[in-house]
Amino acid sequence: MKILPRILACQLIAILLPITANAADNPVRNYPAQKVAAHTYVIHGPLGQPSVKNQGFMNNPGFIITQDGVVVIDPGSSLETGRMVLRQIAKVTKLPVTYVFDTHIHGDHWLGNEAITDAYPDAKLVAHPDMIKLAQQGEAEVWVDRMNQLTDNYTASTKAVIPTIPVIDDQTITTGGMHFHIYAPENAHSKTDIMIEVVEDATLFTGDNVLNNYIGRVDDGTFAGSIAACDRAIGLHDKRYVPGHGQTGSIAIVKRYRDYLSTLLATVKAQHDAGKADFEMKDIVAAKLKKFRNLPGFTEQLGKQISLAVLEIEATN
What we know:
Belongs to the metallo-beta-lactamase superfamily. Class-B beta-lactamase family. Pfam families: Lactamase_B. This protein is of the alpha/beta class. It has one domain (about 25-315): Metallo-beta-lactamase, Chain A. Helix content is about 40%, strand content about 15%. The strands form two sheets. A seven-stranded mixed sheet has the order 1-2-3-4-5-6-7. α7 packs across α8. It is globular.
């Protein structure tokens, strides 16, 4: 048996070592910020669940350049992701971050707060009051631990920095000459959701109330509430919509996701009313949703979503 030369052996070890070994020496890869409107930029993350491969980054952080500062929406899942977001902002402006909006309780969207407050201690962190309450009651640490497990300790240095400023439905925050209109749909994706409309840019950040070409979890919300959130977003007739995951698009992406949710719920209800159990209706529901079956997450989520829909239907009967 031949012994590998020392240099080759070291190179092989470096290849085999997990990328999670040291986040400080292995920052989150840079993802370019796309300008989607006059003042608004979006960093579109890869689709999928948090993992070693994507370093825990898979949402859509956004930032808006106002006259006197930057407003960030959903700075990502970790300290390192938040730092990556700041690197992209620095390529566009030297203005400080003045506000951060966190769309809901799921940590892949807001644990990047730590990076923002490290760099800009005076930044104001804004969220739904129930999101703040749940985070304070322990859900923040649940998400810190979950992200760390899913990334094989890559996000171990991340600490939860919980928002402190609650907002309510139909509230407007004005900063730097721009208006940010808040919509807080009830019982939607997580029951802690806000959608943020950048009024001057006719752009709506939907959070995970809308996903584009991706099927994600709905464990913490309701189908009926999520459909109503889509209806509300559609009724705004904005020029562009930034989903929680997937590419920014027109109103068509909201209508398509609503179609998925409403088709699933209606089909499950019809089968439930016919006396079928959740496992008995899966093939029929899948057939009704055939145009969505090649989307990432469809296969993994379908069975669970059918079961959740059954529970929701039974709770409302």
